[in-house]
Amino acid sequence: MQALYQWQLAGQDIGDIIAQFCDEQQPGEAQREYFSELLRGVLKGLDEIDDLIAPLLDRPMTQVDPVERAILRVGAFELAHRPEVPYRVVINEGVELAKRFGAEQGHRFVNGVLDRLAHQLRAVEQKASGGPA
Fold first, then answer.
1. Among 12, 19, 75, 125, which residue's Cβ finds the most Cβ atoms within 10 Å?
2. How many domains does the chain have?
3. How many C-beta atoms lie closer than 10 Å to residue 28's C-beta?
């Protein structure tokens, strides 16, 4: 989320951002690989991801707080392209990031949008787990 936020604000080269974050955070190889795939995947599919999110918003995407926008984009990518990550984990991670880095009530906004998106993209998983279908 922080790397995507940085890209949104500065427009810095994504390879440089990945290298910087990996140097600072010292992740293991699996974490480094997932981080890189996630960030590159979000940017490669940005239009598709924004198209998934936009109908669920109460305002244009450009008016969404940059932190919340980054969280929603990461969450939408994972819901759409990472079926191995349970939808509840995606939503929970998004909410926790919003609580930590977002606006005061941003976590509620993030929760609502990701929950509705999970309902669309992961209905079968939700039904199988006893969640809303």
1. 75
2. 1
3. 8
Task: Tell me the per-residue pLDDT of 26-85, one tens digit each, with 9 for 90 and over.
Answer: 666 667 788 888 888 999 999 999 999 999 999 999 999 999 999 999 999 999 999 999
Distance CA 22, CA 6 (A): 14
Instruction: Give the CATH number of the domain where residue 25 resides.
Output: 1.10.940.10
pTM above 0.90, yes or no: no
Domain range enclosing 36 = 2-129
In three state form, how does the secondary structure of the chain look?
CHHHHHHHHHCCCHHHHHHHHHHHHCCCHHHHHHHHHHHHHHHHCHHHHHHHHHHHCCCCHHHCCHHHHHHHHHHHHHHHHCCCCCHHHHHHHHHHHHHHHCCCCHHHHHHHHHHHHHHHHCHHHHHHHCCCC
